[in-house]
Amino acid sequence: MNIRIEELTFEPMISYETIAQRTIEIGNTLAEKYKGNTPVFVGVLNGSFMFMADLVKQVPIPLHVAFMKLSSYHGGLATTRTITEDFNLKVDIQGRDVILVEDIVDTGNTLRYLVDKLKSLNPASITVCALLYKPDAMEHNIPELEYVGFEIENKFVVGYGLDYKELGRNYKDIYQLVK
Ligand code: 5GP
Questions:
Q1: Three-state SS for 158?
Q2: Cα(55)–Cα(22) distance, rounded to whole angstroms?
Q3: Atom of ligand 1 nearest to the CA of 105
Q4: What is the domain range of residue 166?
């Protein structure tokens, strides 16, 4: 069923069941790779809160969870080049294996900024796990982007943590904008 947020209409794109299945696969891979290392999962708020919660449940090894808060979209449909840091990482990642958890990689500007910032804190390793990735919009080469839930077309999506004007984050499925 379509949903309406403010003046826009969105149609179903990826169901929660499909997301959950893919999250199990990624979780298993991460658990295998990082067992014995106590990695730090760093989520980027607000968008990644749902994915982070579901992902770490599928990684049954000792790990830490931390968050940073950034904004680059400022609630609209188009990305802005300015990244605002609302709050910073509170955990020391020096010498740790870091898994950066993102909701969506669009132009890659936010990810470029984050990876550079985290690298400057001298982690042992850094990898990126993004639920959604829009390859056609990507403007950077970021080899750390190793785990992707779904590659999608260059369309605006909401739900499962993702918003339009701060609304729609609570839907369990992902929806795409109907033009
Ligand atoms: P980038 O810096 O890669 O262009 O944009 C990354 C951020 O923009 C994401 O973390 C997310 O907050 C926002 N964003 C990018 N594409 C979409 C989209 O299709 N829907 C929503 N709701 N946010 C998006």
A1: strand
A2: 10
A3: 3
A4: 3-177
Tell me, in angstroms, the distance from the centre of ligand 1 to residue 20's CA: 21
> What whole-number distance in Å separates Cα of residue 22 and Cα of residue 94?
30
Out of 54, 97, 103, 106, which one is annotated catalytic?
Answer: 106
Q: CATH no. for residue 114?
A: 3.40.50.2020
User: For residues 13 and 176, is the Cβ–Cβ distance under 8 A?
Assistant: yes
Cα–Cα distance for residue pair 104/150, rounded to 1 Å? 9
Q: How far is the CA of 91 from the centre of ligand 1 (A)?
A: 25
Structural domain count, the chain: 1
Query: Model confidence over 115-169: pLDDT tens digits?
Result: 999 999 999 999 999 999 999 999 999 999 999 999 999 999 999 999 999 999 9
